Each structure stands twice: as structure tokens, then as C-alpha cells.
Amino acid sequence: MTENEVKEQYGAALCALRSYYSVGFFSREYAILRSKEILDDVEKEYQEADDKGKDSLRPKLKSARLLTYRELFEKMFLCIEDLAAIFSALIHPLEEFHKWVAKTPNIKKVFQNITDDEIYKAMKYRDISDYNEDEISIIRKYRADAIESHKKVFETVLSFYKLNEKAYIRMKHGNSLFYNLDSVMIRQEETFIIPVEYNTKIIENVDILMLNSFIYQKTYRLFQYIQQFQRILCEINMNFIENGGHYHPVGLIPEPKSKADEEKINNIISKYWFQDNVKYNINTKIELKADLKKINSMVDFYNNIPL
Questions:
Q1: Are 53 and 199 in contact (CB under 8 A)?
Q2: Which residue in 102, 134, 280, 305 is deepest, having the highest Cβ count within 10 Å?
Q3: How far is it, in rounded angstroms, from Cα 20 to Cα 10?
Q4: Do 69 and 192 form a contact (C-beta atoms < 8 A)?
């Protein structure tokens, strides 16, 4: 494909992919990092205080911990929603990515029973039926390992979602969780147990949201993995477009298990790398056509707020 053909077919999709890659993902992590900085400052203040100071700082410390844990919990769900939108969009034609990613997918449907074919599409795995038997064998082996690993992550994400879905729904709708600073010790961890009321007819029926340092650390690792996986998905598909619609000869696979395998894989890449070796530097931009009256009315609204 020529550069103009690529721009015409994939320009809008590339713009959307770049937006997620450059700003979208970090926007999820920004508040998490800031809340952790605040908690670290409070922890330091508490540790440096004398006994009397510690007594007065204890509510502030517990509040900072609770809010930091809660911030990650909320952003984790937004991150899961991002992954569902991006992955479900990438199993459709890439030139339609910007249309599909704007839809709101059903989280459970996206992550339940994900097929190898869907992962192949999202990861832009090339058809290798024209390779020789040895080449096919080694690539299939490593692709199978990659797919198994991805499916385990999707299963973990789905389990996290199901485990905490009610709490997140209540958090989104009026933030109607009953927060308190009382805590209990669970497996030697100071733990906040937050009741989640989800049945307005029988209010005694409650679920719980459980937050502590251990859960925070495990959730943050999962959050970081998802963020990195989303970046990889975007990068793979951006490269596909910038390379003129050419597939990578092997695709993203785990590290080779031996020097012999590494040599075989490198030979396959060299043998089947696309002939023209193009790398288009495509400039993308979003053209906004907004009603000037609408813009002015928005500015006027904020100017007229009586505060």
C-alpha cells in the first residue's frame, strides 16, 4: 500500500490508537500515582510523630489509606472497561477501530470464552500456511504459549470484575457506599470492610468491598499488566498501519526458550520480512467541527456560575 492509501484507509483508526497510546492509558494511572504520593507523605508524617502526635494523626492516616485503596479500585474498573473496548474493537476490521472503540461493550461477554481466532486478530498474527513445516511448528508452539498466557489474564480480569461488580456499580451511581474508618485485622493486614447495599427492597442484603494494603499491591500489579497489554495491542496495530498493512512474520511471542529456537525465529523473520521495508511517518489529527454558538454557551455558563 502507498502512504496515501494507508492514510485514506487507516488514518482515523491510527489517530484513535495513538490517542489511547499517548494519553489515554496514563490518564487512568495519573490519579493513582497522585493519591499514593499523598499517602506516602501522610505515612511519613505519622512515623515521624511522637506518641501523642500519632494518636491525633491516626484518623488522617486511615482516611488516606482508605481513599488511596479506593482510588485504585475505581481506576482498575475503568482500565478493565478500556481493555474491553479496545480488544473488542480490534477483532473487527482495523479501519473501523475508531467506530467500534467508541461503543460500550458488555464486559462479561467480551471476556468470556475468548477464542484463539479473536486473539489472532487483535494481535495481528500473520497467516503462516505458506511457511514450511518446521517454521510452522515452532511459531505455533510459541503462539500457543502466548495465547494461553493472555487467556489466563482475561480470566483473572473477569473474575476481578465479577467479584467487585456490585461495589463498582454503587460507586458509579451516587457513590452510595457506606464508608467508615473502622478497620479489622485480616491475615495481619489492617482491612476496611465497606458494605455494599444493592437491594433497595431488602436493604439488609449487602455485599462487601474489602480493601487493604495486600489487596492494593496485587490489584496494582494486575492494573499495570493490563495497562502494558493495552499499550502492546495499540503498538502492534499502529506498526501494522505504519508498515503499509504488512504483518510481522512471527508476531509477538514469548522469549525463546533456547538459543536454537531464537536462531530459528530470527531466520524466519529475516526470510519473510516484507520486501519494501516501508515505515510511513503518517501525520494524524482530529478536525473538530463544533457549533460556535455551543462553545460560547458553554463559556457563558461557567462565567455565570454565581461563585
A1: no
A2: 280
A3: 16
A4: yes
Q: At what angle do helices 51-90 and 133-172 cross, to 10 degrees?
A: 130
Residue type, 144: A
- DSSP string of 145-194, one letter each residue: HHHHHHHHHHHHHHHHHHHHHHHHHHHHTTT-----S--EEETTEEEEEE
- Residues 280-289 pLDDT 10s: 888 877 777 7
Average pLDDT of the chain to the nearest whole number: 87
Per DSSP, 103 falls in state S
Q: How far apart are CA 179 and CA 192, in angstroms?
A: 9
Transcribe 34-100 into DSSP letters.
HHHHHHHHHHHHHHHS-HHHHHHHHHHHHHHHHHHHHHHHHHHHHHHHHHHHHHHHHTS-GGGHHHH
How many other CB atoms are found less than 10 A from the CB of residue 264?
17
Residues 6+ apart with CB under 8 A from 282: 3, 6, 7, 11, 14, 241, 242
Contact in structure between 74 and 179 (CB atoms under 8 Å): no
Grid cell listed for 43: 505515612
Q: All 3 cell numbers of residue 90?
A: 480490534
Across the strands, what pairs with 206? 197
Q: What is each CA distance from 53 to 39, 57, 164, 208, 274, in whole angstroms?
A: 17, 6, 36, 32, 67
